[in-house]
Amino acid sequence: MTSTNFAVKTSEGSLDCLLVEPDQLAPAPAMLFTFSSTADDATNVAPHSLPAEAFLNKGHRVLSFDLPFHGKRIGPDGRQSLEGMRDSFLDGSDPFVQFIEDGKAALDECEARNLISAAGVSVCGVSRGGYCALRLAAADVRFHSVAGLAPVVDWRRLTGFEQVKDHPGFAALAMPSWSEPLVGRGVYVVIGNSDIRVGTDLSVASMLKLYELEAAENRTTSRLCLHVVDELPGHSILEYWYSDAGNWLRRQCEALSAR
């Protein structure tokens, strides 16, 4: 494997990206954008790195970067992690809009470097990274498929966000408010059946909304995939599902390149 760091320009100034490439590329190498809290976690730390491994082991590329307020991107006032994202939003600076800009800029750079083939680009994320991945896919049709592993879909449900549950801005961040562009796209979600941290019910309801929107369009096929699993309690899923998500996305890419 070869890891390369490069920077792209954003409204924040500069975004550090991590590109990982296998020693032997596939004939039509796909690209996976993958997100956890940091680029290192998403590409090097199991189980969060298992979707990346599913791509790299078959000759495809992987890209990641730190989420806003995570890793090297701690705010100048020391804000970090989920609380940093929350407080930044309350102060009028939307970290999720920034993340979308980051993702688009990174993909623009990948296209400029001729890193995108006929297999296209998928995106995945874990928990908070799952929310970001879903938002990015909804905002940019170049991501033809997306996977959320135990994803946040409504920030008001999280511990630490109780005080903003009545804030109209946080209500607008919930998945049903922005998910319509995902209709007809490849969307994979896996959630534990007792995940009270992010809400099993919220993930199921969000996916059911997509199914309803597709039914309203009289679609005869669907690329929506929802797994509600019972192997582990709480905000946890088995390693199998991380690999399954990566392999599902990889097959979406390989099917695209075969057309």
Outline the structure in words:
The protein is of the alpha/beta class and 259 residues long. It has a single domain (2-257), classed as 3-Layer(aba) Sandwich (Rossmann fold). The chain is 36% helix and 20% strand. Strands 1-2-4-3-5-6-7-8 form an 8-stranded mixed β-sheet, sandwiched between helices. A hairpin with a 2-residue loop joins strand 1 and strand 2. The longest helix is centred in the C-terminal third of the chain and has 19 residues, at 239-257. The protein is globular and about 50 Å long.
Q: Provide the domain count.
A: 1
Characterize the quaternary organization of these chains: single chain
Total helices: the number is 8
Order of strands side by side in the largest beta sheet?
A: 1-2-4-3-5-6-7-8
Query: Order of helices and strands, N to C?
Result: EEEHHEHHEHEHEHEH
Query: How does CATH name the architecture?
Result: 3-Layer(aba) Sandwich
Output the CATH class name: Alpha Beta
CATH superfamily: Alpha/Beta hydrolase fold, catalytic domain
Q: Mean pLDDT, as a whole number? A: 95
Radius of gyration: 17 Å
Question: Count the strands?
Answer: 8
Structural class: alpha/beta
Distance between the termini: 28 Å
Give a quick account of the main beta sheet: strands, pairing sense, barrel closure: 8 strands, mixed
Strand content: 15-25%
Morphology = globular
Helix content: 25-40%
What is the CATH T-level topology?
Rossmann fold
Which regions contain 5 or more consecutive residues with pLDDT less than 50?
Answer: none
